[in-house]
Amino acid sequence: GDGRIDFDEFIAFSDRAAEIQKETEQLTGRKATTMIVIGRVKAGVNMKDVNLNKLFQQYGGGGHAKAASCTVRLDDEGDAGDILQGLVDELIESSLMQQQTVGDFMTSPVLSAKPTMTEKQVEDLFVRYDVRALPVVDDSNAVIGLVTYKEVAAAKQRLWNKEQKRIRQEARAEAEKNKPNAQKNKKGKGGKENAVHKRQERKLGSALKGWMKQHVQTVEASRTMAEVEAILLENDVGCIPVVADGTDQLVGMVTRTDLLRQHRYYPSLHYHNPGFSDSIAARKPIIELRKKLKKFDIED
């Protein structure tokens, strides 16, 4: 009489509703059910226009543009597949963008090194053009290797070790020659000139083809950004030479910085694809809101 429902009344109502539902299913041959759809968008250049909040509003759901959910009441559980397919079709038609290819954002034209270059020559290129890696190409511009600052440093160290070893050997030979009972080795003018010439050759260094990275991974210019990103992560490398489709001809280089530039992770990077995502400044309000809400977090 007071308008309130006690626990026993609620149980009775629930049981009666379940009976009615069961009778309806027996009469119609259809089994009603509830489907919960949860959507989340992974960051990527082709996901900028995806709005899950708007997509799920037709079923009374909502949330964030990149993370939302809805609860759909189904007259028959067999309808679940059609509804999900309809959501996917609408998402593809209205929101997804065509992925960029490597050729759209790679660094091109790109500087390259020759296999006959020495440590000093490669190092000069690194310093002059402020790069940390260079593809190595042959006379036909086909990629045959890759050289980074690590290979240059290791090659210079080996060259220095050889020079120090030579100096020690010459010092020992000089000491042996100056001993009282030592037999003096008289070198003619031609012998001295030959020794100087060999010493100068050693100082020039060794050819790049002997210490560069060989059998390096390359990607074709038509590969998508997602594909080249996966290759960089799987091979744990910082850059990959880009070749023309179906050939080994060098056309550019793609680096981690190129990918970061497209993802717009850092405001200091220049972006070639300004239509991809919101800028760092545009995200500032939500960042400030999160800071204000943090004081309400429940501590463990």
**Beta strand count:** 8
Rg over CA atoms, rounded to whole Å, is 35 Å
- Order of strands, main sheet, comes to 1-3-2
Helix content: 40-55%
Order of helices and strands: HEHEEHHHEEHHEHEEHH
Strand portion: 5-15%
- Treating each run of at least 4 consecutive H or I residues as one helix, how many helices? 10
pLDDT averaged residue by residue: 79
Structure notes:
The protein has a 3-stranded antiparallel β-sheet. It has a 3-stranded mixed β-sheet with strand order 6-7-8. Strands 4-5 form a two-stranded antiparallel sheet. It is elongated. Helices cover 44% and strands 14% of the residues. Mean pLDDT is 79; it is low at 271-278. The chain is α+β, with helices and mostly antiparallel strands and 300 residues long. The chain is built from 10 helices and 8 strands.
Which short descriptors sum up this protein?
10 helices; 3-stranded mixed sheet; 300 residues; 44% helix; 3-stranded antiparallel sheet; alpha+beta; 8 strands; elongated
Summarize the structure.
This protein has helices at residues 7-28, 52-56, 80-94, 102-105, 119-129, 149-177, 189-204, 225-235, 256-263, 284-293, and strands at 33-40, 62-64, 67-74, 133-137, 143-148, 219-220, 239-243, 250-255. By secondary structure, the chain is an alpha+beta fold.
List strands and helices in order, with pairings.
Elements: H1 7-28, E1 33-40, H2 52-56, E2 62-64, E3 67-74, H3 80-94, H4 102-105, H5 119-129, E4 133-137, E5 143-148, H6 149-177, H7 189-204, E6 219-220, H8 225-235, E7 239-243, E8 250-255, H9 256-263, H10 284-293
Parallel strand pairs: 6-7
Antiparallel strand pairs: 1-3, 2-3, 4-5, 7-8
Helix pairs in contact: 5-6
